[in-house]
Design a protein that fits this description.
mainly alpha
């Protein structure tokens, strides 16, 4: 697997920093899938993210029902995220 040159990596990191949570998951998932073997490891190191984030993005892109669970205009499924203090 060949990676991108430093200029492209820099632009990718900047673009990634401008995305919201859901868009980030899908962006890294697409990049990892596009690169094929070794793509997940390369993307994980490039963006400094966990394997879980990449796997979650891939799962959401592969199964439309997972995306449908996220309400319109929201980034997470109902019940996701930090719980409010009582």
């Amino acid at each position: 697997m060949t990676g991108y040159n430093q200029e492209i990596e820099s632009k990718m990191r900047y673009h990634y920093s401008q995305l919201n949570e859901k868009e980030k998951r899908h962006y890294v998932a697409l990049e990892a899938l596009k690169l094929g073997v070794g793509g997940k490891t390369y993307v994980r190191k490039l963006f400094g993210i966990s394997d879980y984030l990449i796997r979650k993005g891939i799962a959401e892109l592969a199964d439309k029902s997972l995306l449908d669970e996220i309400p319109q205009g929201k980034l997470r499924r109902i019940g996701g995220g930090r719980k409010k203090k009582s």
